[in-house]
Design brief:
The protein is mostly helical. Helix content is 63%, strand content 0%. The radius of gyration is 19 Å and the shape is elongated.
């Protein structure tokens, strides 16, 4: 096994976090950070807007609005973490 250089780690190692990498000729998995970033952004916007609309128009369903607020906070944390990983230089 060849010695890895810093550039190899910055570019991303093939099959990292992929237990089935190369098994029976399977291709190495690719990172889906950009997709995860878009999905977290969509979840954040959707949950926040839906929560505000429910609070304003359907106060009897305020429990649902609070659930959406919690989901929006989770999406915001995920969005921030993925953005941090992308800015650090991880591929995907």
């Amino acid at each position: 096994m060849p010695k890895r250089k810093r550039e190899d780690y910055e570019r991303g190692l093939p099959g990292y976090h992929d237990p089935m990498a190369g098994v029976a000729g399977a291709p190495y998995a690719r990172s889906a950070l950009t997709l995860r970033l878009w999905l977290a952004g969509f979840g954040l916007v959707f949950c926040a807007v839906a929560a505000v609309l429910i609070f304003l128009n359907l106060p009897e369903l305020s429990w649902l609005a609070w659930v959406l607020v919690v989901l929006a906070v989770i999406a915001a944390v995920d969005f921030g973490w993925v953005l941090y990983r992308k800015l650090r230089g991880e591929p995907g």
